[in-house]
Amino acid sequence: MAQPKVAGDTRPSVAELIEDIGVGKAQLIILCTGGVVLFNRGIQMCLMSILTIPVASTFKLGPNSQGLLSTLLFVGMVLGTIASGYLGDRLGRRFPVCTSAILVSLFAALSALANSYLSLLILRFVLGFFMAFGDVPVTALLSEVTPKRWRIPMRAASEGFFDVGYTYAAFLATLMDPYLHDLQWRKLLLMASIPPGVLGILTIFILPESPVYLAMTGDHVMAQRILTSLKRMNGVPGISVDYKPPMVESASIPAMEQLRIIFGNRYRRSTMILAYTTFVINFFYYGGMYTQPQVMQKGHGLMPGWEIVLGGPADIFGILFATVVAQLLPRRVVLSFAMFMAAVGISCFGYAGSVESRSWLLECVYHFGVLGFYWVPAMTFIVLGQLSVETFPTVASATGGSVAFAMGRVGALAAPLVFENIRAQTGRWNIFCYIAAVGCLFGMLLVVFMWSPPVEDDDPFESAPERIRPLADAEEGKNRHVQKRM
């Protein structure tokens, strides 16, 4: 058990112990079990985009009823994100992750058994809630068990689970019907739920709690037990897990106190910029996913199913690219570049996609825009996701991340509604693309000219203020201890 704090205590903090334990088998196991949250989300996001028409055909749905299925899914995701932040800071990281891993597979399978439109609506709402319930806690958990220089690679690897899930669902659908017209949506939902369901069960038995969270909440016995397990799996048994307790210990703090932290003077600007950029990149991404089926039959492209399947490698490119550049460049540069490329990509898609018979050059422009819906968000989500939990102190990191993630869900929710209203009023779908491009450019300008890291004074919630300093270091382009940490 950690001893009481004494003057001149030379023992390492929990964060410093994580650095000493390093990266190895322990982080790989946590990644593979916690990653089921993103694997699940990738599957369901893909199925949402390709099963809308088959489901509408089964229940004889009109345009409004059809759109309501996606709307309620995203409403559930907004509420699930908000709940996950508070509970992740109050009950720990493990509970929301395990709950999400199991219940997403369960409610996805139950959706396949829905015998009425109303029952399907309810199930989609609950599914959306649990899809988002583990997002922020798993991001915080992966960050807290990983040394600083490996946090971006770890975050990138976790995003890879989303791409694997998305590609898996697209591949199953394409095997059924490469044109995505006559899909057996009930069978597809059931088949897609089996692998994540098995992984979810394993997660319950394998995934540990964050030792950083346990130390902050005063559970030093369990924190040391988990640290001992981590060092054993990583092959460094000689390290002592006797750590210096945090300067302030709190079993939990009220929700309003968490909000006061992230919207206080120190973090307000960072919170608002993270919230806006997360909103606009989700508006761009989910708007693009919704818009794609409207135009993918035009021109000389591939069959729709294979076109979606090939988006997976584009996502992997974005992940690898982000992993490299985020290790070498300040976060401001990486995020600004990603927002700029989002604006360029969706503009190319909107322009070339509106042409009925495309030349080979316009076909290249169109596919550049289509692939931009995959690799650009992959890069942006890695940087934004890591910033969203690392900007704030441990006792409010999941809450801070949930605010940013929730705004992303709002962007995802708004995109189909804005698209349909614009198309209904103007008869032109590509105006939506240009609006999204302007929003991305504005986000880029915010990051370039308005971002400033939190003030570097002592953090009353941390024993190691270095946890906040990496943002400042990255913004200054310094090379010490953080450029490689996410």
UniProtKB/TrEMBL annotation:
Membrane topology type: Multi-pass membrane protein
Gene3D superfamilies for the chain: MFS general substrate transporter like domains (1.20.1250.20)
GO MF, one annotated term: transmembrane transporter activity
Keyword vocabulary terms for this entry: Membrane, Transmembrane, Transmembrane helix, Transport
The keyword Membrane is annotated on this UniProt entry: yes
Stretches of the chain forming a coiled coil according to its record: none
Pfam families given in the database record: Sugar_tr
PROSITE patterns named among the record's database cross-references: MFS
Example of a GO cellular component annotation carried by this entry: membrane
Protein known as: Major facilitator superfamily (MFS) profile domain-containing protein
Source organism: Alexandrium catenella
